[in-house]
Amino acid sequence: MEANFWHNKWANNEIAFHRSNPNPQLVNNIETLSLAEGSRLFIPLCGKSLDIAWLLSNGFCIAGAELVETAIEQLFTELAIVPTIGVLDDIKHYSAPNIDIFVGDIFAVSRQMLGPVDAIYDRAALVALPQEIRAKYTSHLMKITHKSPQLLVTYHYDQNLYQGPPFSISDEEVAQHYKANYDLTLIVSIDVEGGLKGKYEAKENVWLLDNA
Fold first, then answer.
1. E strands along the chain, which residues?
2. For the segment 62-93, what is each residue's pLDDT rounded down to a tens digit?
3. pTM for this entry
4. Domain-located, residue 143
5. Which residue segment(s) compose the domain that 113 sits in?
6. How many domains does the chain have?
């Protein structure tokens, strides 16, 4: 899946994946990360998620990465924040107090560019990437965040019925990517109400990845 896929989604306003409220799995499970007020969370492939506004309103600092600049322009408009925009190598950096968003290819975001983070909230990144890219992504994510703990949201369903995204991620695949570096705890596993895309039986799984 190429970058043009996501650029076209935003250009055509085909953003049904964008939620109209904060993700309840974040709201209900953020405390499992045991974060102090003012902690900095990294949200890969963040889009203009309302999770960002919710986290900011609850005293957290946000770092995000997003491929599509339109999404980040809309994010700051909806937050009513005027960002400072700079360029770091091949990445555009949108910044304001308590928020830094890096626009471009996430694989071009370096550890030095990102700076320190206390935790990762991955709701939309791992499930958005095709299988052949996921190992590269998880390795890069751990590298740039110093293996910070994660709250990870995945879906599990019959991939033969729907090709994704979001893609199906099995428990075994989560372990394949992360078991060597984290203690893995499946803290929530629930049926997707109404089915994935309103059609397909699926589980929504929430993982806590804590430092081993």
1. 40-44, 61-66, 84-88, 91-96, 99-103, 119-122, 150-157, 182-191, 202-211
2. 999 999 999 999 999 999 999 999 999 999 99
3. 0.91
4. yes
5. 3-11+23-211
6. 1
